[in-house]
């Protein structure tokens, strides 16, 4: 195998790794938004039972919206 082939293979693997990281990051952001949306649907009593403050939840939702 020539040196050029080895180098281009490394570049190709690096590119695929970068694409994989971007996809994982996008999916993680989607899951965070979905979780926040589901928590926001609960009433205050349920949120208190699980230890989540409505004000903190709203602040987190606003932070996610700013991203």
Radius of gyration: 21 Å
SSE topology string: HHH
Number of helices: 3
* Structural class category: mainly alpha
Helix amount, in percent? over 70%
Q: In angstroms, what separates the terminal alpha carbons?
A: 45 Å
Q: Outline, from the CA principal axes?
A: elongated
Total number of beta strands: 0
Strand content: under 5%
Low-confidence stretches: 1-6
Average pLDDT figure:
85
Secondary structure topology:
Layout: H1 3-40, H2 44-49, H3 54-66
Characteristics:
67 residues; mainly alpha
Outline the structure in words.
The chain has 67 residues and is an all-alpha fold. It has a domain of 44 residues. 85% of the residues lie in helices and 0% in strands. It contains 3 helices and no strands. The longest helix has 38 residues. It is elongated and about 55 Å long. The N and C termini lie far apart (45 Å).
Short description:
The protein is an all-alpha fold and 67 residues long.
